[in-house]
Design brief:
Residues 40-53 have a biased composition (Basic and acidic residues). Keywords: Cell cycle, Cell division, Centromere, Chromosome, Kinetochore, Mitosis, Nucleus. It is found in: Chromosome, Centromere, Kinetochore; Nucleus. This is Polyamine-modulated factor 1. With 235 residues, the protein is mostly helical. Among the domains are: 1-49; 53-136, no CATH class. The chain has seven helices and no strands. It has helices at residues 2-51, 57-75, 78-84, 86-91, 93-121, 124-138, 151-225. The longest helix is centred in the C-terminal third of the chain and has 75 residues, at 151-225.
Length: 235
Amino acid sequence: MAVTVETQDKQMRSNVDITRGDNVQDQINNATNVSSQSSGREKHSNLSGESEPRGNRLLLFNTVIEKSLLKFMSDARFHRASQIFHPLYKKNPQETEKIHKQFIEHLQRSIQDDITKLIEEGDLQCKLDKLDQLGAASNSQDAAWRPSGVPEQDLCSFVMSYYMKQEAYLKRELRKIREENTALAERVQAGREGIGRTEQHIATTVDEWKVSAQASFNEFQILSSSPCPPATFDV
């Protein structure tokens, strides 16, 4: 009877060991499968990343700024503010929450406005677009420029485009200045014509006044020199 119990005990232990071994083997197989799948996904992602073109740097910049702003705003959540201003929160929780909400809205709007101003002042969009163009040009299969060995020719080819741009810019500015001078000359000419008409009108008025005054003076002389009856001067 004792032998039978020992035999059964040994069989049960062996079954448990076999079961444990199967479980361990299953765990190893699962881990191997997971690692192989993850490595396969990494390889596929690397291949797809290499095949895809470079992303828009401005979009990436905006995404990073947005995530950073969200993380920053999450650190300023109401729970932390209520702990810092616990006496105020304990006295009036609703008013404290209202003040915190207004503060968060104002802070977020101010940060976004400052970021927008920095992007505009630094002309960041143009610079990031140029980086995108350089990144796209780096994948080009065309032959890159190399110096010819003659410094004069290389310098001329490099500086000529700059001089041509400056020439075009100066021509545009000169055309603008000439147009402004023409407009000013027309305004001056119109002013002179107006002054001439005014002078002519004044001279005509003065001549008419002189003629009228002379006629009145002549009439007065005639009246004063002619004999008149005394009744004419009676009041």
